[in-house]
Amino acid sequence: MSKASKIATFPINRLFPSMITILGLCLGLFAIKYAIIGKWEVAVMLVIIASFMDGIDGGVARLLDATSKFGAQLDSLADFLNFTIAPAFILYFWKTHEIKGIGWAATIFFIMCGAIRLARFNAMQESEEEVKKDDRFFMGMPSPASADLSLLPMIFTFLAAQKFDYALNITPTVVIISMSILAVLMVSRLPTISLKKLKIRKEFSSLVMASAGLFIVALITEPWITLPLLGLGYVLTIPATVWLYYKK
């Protein structure tokens, strides 16, 4: 057997999911950079885009039959940066640094809870608990959702400035309280809906695709209105999700 025949090869498309994950990781790093220089809208939008990319990389991996332990670990590391470190520091540079000590403590607490959640999620992937649990639900709030919701106070200020020409003043205390609540929800056992496993009837597929198109148009044209409505819709699903989970 020749030396060339021993070289292992595989289709390059198996790297596409990891490329998407790395692209999302770069967005998180740029979000921190833009927060440092005070370009708040750009920083927030980069985290939002990263959260949407996180929702598709796993689907692309399954579609291409390119799932791997390496990809799963890379995705987890990217999530830690994009949805715990990045939003926590964006909020710190924006507002919470104004309360010395407590603001930094809230930043550390948010990052710590995000790390605990991701570690628990990774551990559950190979445990019996993961096999037994209903995959329509997450245990605790996913870090992308928590990151997006944590940035809502900033989004409200963007909305007030652009649509009402009003300088909305959100205090550091409000931001710290909201960060702390979301951090606790990440490490809680509260059941939340898993959209990745949500199933629909076949006859509704066209309606869902049309709704997705409408959402994308709204997100591009009016992001600071669309994102709060999306966040509110997600929060409203939590009581219904808890009821369905425990009823089952």
Describe this structure in words.
It is built from ten helices and two strands. The protein has a two-stranded antiparallel sheet. The model has no long low-confidence stretch (mean pLDDT 86). The protein has a domain at 82-247. With 248 residues, it is mainly α. The longest helix has 26 residues, at 69-94. Helices cover 72% and strands 2% of the residues.
Q: What proportion of the residues form beta strands (DSSP E)?
A: under 5%
Report on the biggest sheet.
2 strands, antiparallel
- Strand-pairing-aware structural class: mainly alpha
Report the order of strands and helices: HHHHHEHHHEHH
Our measurement of the CA-to-CA distance between the termini, rounded to an integer number of angstroms, reads 58 Å
Given the C-alpha coordinates, what overall shape results? Answer: globular
Strand line-up across the major sheet: 1-2
Model regions low in confidence, pLDDT < 50 over at least 5 residues: none
Q: Using only CA atoms, what is the Rg?
A: 20 Å
- Helix content bin: over 70%
Q: What is the residue-mean pLDDT, rounded to a whole number? A: 86
Query: Please, how many helices?
Result: 10
